[in-house]
Structure to design on (636 residues):
């Protein structure tokens, strides 16, 4: 605002004093310190200014000897990663620190940072190659330069960390560690200056130093660098020989160290780095070196790796607020990692033992996996998860059910496959009703779906003996299983509060519907098998006669079953059963008019229409009598 002098000299001086006071007040509010060489004189001037201002709202300026009241902390005055406030911090920090959560900040401070680390490491590798090609310095000199440069970068990074540039400090540590790894690798692999044992020990020292710095500085990023470097060490120092015990023991030590870290620190992402590195290393070794005579030793190490990462979700430290579900890396550690570990662990054992002479063990391995995950439910969780371990318990229960479901087709075939899955589904449904677990209901439905699929696809053909054969027995078992579920669901539905979604009442209705469908399919298959067995092969007349008998049998059976369903619907006052009967009768009507009219002989055609007409008249009479007062109710 432009200042224009007006009025008398005294008025102009008073106006200038007022403006000066407001400027000082604004500076003090921002945390700035005013230069005061003469405290007493400055205090007197401030008091005289305050007295000369006619405004009643004006307040005296605090003297320099008495500190001003701290102004509210502003975002631009926070020193990054230190939590300390500074008046001049805004001028000492990068501009991106004012936008910590923005996309611009992430691109500038994180993405460019990581790309820069990769670029520098690639440049250093090319520099080493360039120095080798041009013979600038001797091999020992090149290695010493790399070691000194790497150590110097790590030491230099501490200077930036002390000034608050923590992320940049970690970047320098990553570059320095990478240079050390490259130098040690070159000393062993390129120049053969040191034996593999010495280079391996030196790389372990670098990894241990990074891990120690991560622990002391409470830096998860440094721990990630240490794990990546540690897992890369065997690759860098590989001699092309098979050292299974050494390699897997080393990987197991790294995984156990990670397990200890995530139990003490909330660093759940370390698990994924260690898990991914272990899978890659084991897979690479498997492809290159595995043979059948190593099966026992390999099985031991696979079991140890599996147990390590199976226990990890129970031990990982995840601090949650009350009522807040895990998210981000924590959610992945609780859900994705256990699922991947279970699947890959079982796959490894399956590949190991699915061979001639040991294939009998694969179903029992699945049973052992199921028993293990049932036992895992009793383990407590770490941190605040011990208050509500339902997430892990549900996941472990799902894994146990899944492995039991897998064990059935590995051991059983044909109708036993069907009965195994249906029996498992019925057992799970019973446990779900007793324990009130919705997850078990979903798993039971999955088992029933598998059982139905097997019943309709891989079930053996019926024998010439009607009804008393393995196929009909499998259908009868399925009808019994769904009858058990219907009865159980009806009982549970009486106590059910929430009737939405996957309710017990809907399960009861679905089970009754499936019972009727399976009964129709089973009897129809028996009718077809019975008449086919009585036809003469390559005799058209015999086949034609059997086909006519079969078609009439279908119609008669459908009408009889529909009448029985309708009677049950009236007796139990169930509109659900009556509607099923009406649909079946409508199907019978369509079959008689569209199929029987053209396929059956004159006698059977007359009989079909007479039976159908009589049945429909009887049904019509029952409905006209309105025994259930359906017209009065206005609905069925």
């Amino acid at each position: 605002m432009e200042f224009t002098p007006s009025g008398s000299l005294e008025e102009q001086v008073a106006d200038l004093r007022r403006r000066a006071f407001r400027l000082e007040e604004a500076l003090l509010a921002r945390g700035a310190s005013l230069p005061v060489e003469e405290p007493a004189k400055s205090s007197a001037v401030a008091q005289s200014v305050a007295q000369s201002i006619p405004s009643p709202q004006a307040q005296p300026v605090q003297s320099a000897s008495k500190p001003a009241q701290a102004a509210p902390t502003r975002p631009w005055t926070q020193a990054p990663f230190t939590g300390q406030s500074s008046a001049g911090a805004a001028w000492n920090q990068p501009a991106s620190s004012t936008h910590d959560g923005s996309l611009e900040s992430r691109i500038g401070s994180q993405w460019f940072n990581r790309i820069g680390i990769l670029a520098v490491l690639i440049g250093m590798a090319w520099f080493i190659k360039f120095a080798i090609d041009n013979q600038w310095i001797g091999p020992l000199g090149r290695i010493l330069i790399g070691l000194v440069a790497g150590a110097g970068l790590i030491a230099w990074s501490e200077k930036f960390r002390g000034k608050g540039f923590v992320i940049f400090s970690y970047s320098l540590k990553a570059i320095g560690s990478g240079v050390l790894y490259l130098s040690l690798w070159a000393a062993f692999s390129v120049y053969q200056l040191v034996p593999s044992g010495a280079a391996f020990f030196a790389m372990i020292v670098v990894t241990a130093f990074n891990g120690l710095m991560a622990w002391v500085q409470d830096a998860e990023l440094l721990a990630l660098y240490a794990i990546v470097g540690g897992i890369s060490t065997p690759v860098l120092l590989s001699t092309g020989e098979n050292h299974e015990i050494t390699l897997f023991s080393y990987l197991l030590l790294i995984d156990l160290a990670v397990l200890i870290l995530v139990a003490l620190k909330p660093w759940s992402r370390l698990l994924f780095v260690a898990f991914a590195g272990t899978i890659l290393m084991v897979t690479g070794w498997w492809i290159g070196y595995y043979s059948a005579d190593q099966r026992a030793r390999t099985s031991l190490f696979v079991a140890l790796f599996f147990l390590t990462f199976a226990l990890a979700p129970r031990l990982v430290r995840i601090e949650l607020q009350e009522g807040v579900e895990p998210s981000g890396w924590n959610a992945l550690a609780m859900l994705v990692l256990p699922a991947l570990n279970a699947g890959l662990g079982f796959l490894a054992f399956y590949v190991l033992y699915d061979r001639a002479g040991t294939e009998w063990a694969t179903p029992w391995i699945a049973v052992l996996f199921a028993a293990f995950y049932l036992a895992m439910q009793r383990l407590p969780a770490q941190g605040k998860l011990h208050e509500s371990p339902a997430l892990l318990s549900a996941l472990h229960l799902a894994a146990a059910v899944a492995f039991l479901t897998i064990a059935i087709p590995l051991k059983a075939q044909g109708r036993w496959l069907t009965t195994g899955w249906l029996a498992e589904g019925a057992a799970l449904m019973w446990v779900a009703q007793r324990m009130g677990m919705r997850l078990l209901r979903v798993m039971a439905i999955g088992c029933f779906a598998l059982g139905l699929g097997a019943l309709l696809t891989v079930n053996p053909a019926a024998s010439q003996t009607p009804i008393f054969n393995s196929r009909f027995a499998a259908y009868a078992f399925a009808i019994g299983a769904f009858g058990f579920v219907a009865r159980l669901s009806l009982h549970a539905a009486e106590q059910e509060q929430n009737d939405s979604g996957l309710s017990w009442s809907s399960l009861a209705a679905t089970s009754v519907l499936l019972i009727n469908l399976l009964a129709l399919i089973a009897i129809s298959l028996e009718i077809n098998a019975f008449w086919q067995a009585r036809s003469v092969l390559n005799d058209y007349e015999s086949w034609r006669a059997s086909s006519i008998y079969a078609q009439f049998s279908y119609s008669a059976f459908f009408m009889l079953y529909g009448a029985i369903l309708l009677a049950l619907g009236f007796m139990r006052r169930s509109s659900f059963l009556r509607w099923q009967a009406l649909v079946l009768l409508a199907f019978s009507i369509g079959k008689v008019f569209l199929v029987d009219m053209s396929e059956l002989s004159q006698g059977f055609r007359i009989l079909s229409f007479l039976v159908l007409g009589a049945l429909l008249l009887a049904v019509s009479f029952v409905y006209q009598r309105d025994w259930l007062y359906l017209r009065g109710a206005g609905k069925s």
User: Anything to note?
Assistant: Residues 1-62 form one domain.
